[in-house]
Amino acid sequence: EAGVTQSPTHLIKTRGQQATLRCSPISGHTSVYWYQQALGLGLQFLLWYDEGEERNRGNFPPRFSGRQFPNYSSELNVNALELEDSALYLCASRGGTGNQPQHFGDGTRLSIL
Amino acid sequence: SQQGEEDPQALSIQEGENATMNCSYKTSINNLQWYRQNSGRGLVHLILIRSNEREKHSGRLRVTLDTSKKSSSLLITASRAADTASYFCATGRNQAGTALIFGKGTTLSVSS
To answer: How many other C-beta atoms are found inside a 10 Å radius of the C-beta of residue A33?
Structure first.
């Protein structure tokens, strides 16, 4: 069974640009979560999608947005990039109920110059 | 915001020794999960323990949960150099599957 896949592995942008990160969940999983892991800040929840709908978002500004496609893959978009957006962005997918584990991809390392 | 705290923040042991990491959390939970992260990579799921469970085993891993104290522990027995990684606990608040809230992690170094 293929795991969660994320692309690209690395992304280098400059301030003010826009970034798009992609995630393919494990087959059969309908829920996709995005987390940010920035140095010194730990793992912070960004967005949760399920069945194509945004279910919840963390304490991040609106320039962080995303969507989930009919095949349950997902995109995270970050507009007007700032230096502090440099981080590892992790996608996770989950099947079944909330008592099932979330399975993570290897992440996209976003670097803002 | 972090739900809980892992303790210790860093742990260095020799191969063959046991490693114990603790996690405390603040609010009621539906489940608690432990993850491992090798440097700069994604998280690997280790164990999920439900709020009505007290102990769970998986290979060399043993997890306990004390909901009255809002705490959990992860024991790795007979550690190997390959166990060197950061370990995080994460709490799931409800059955609906809202986001996990992670602690800051314990960095484990196992030397041969």
So the answer is: 27
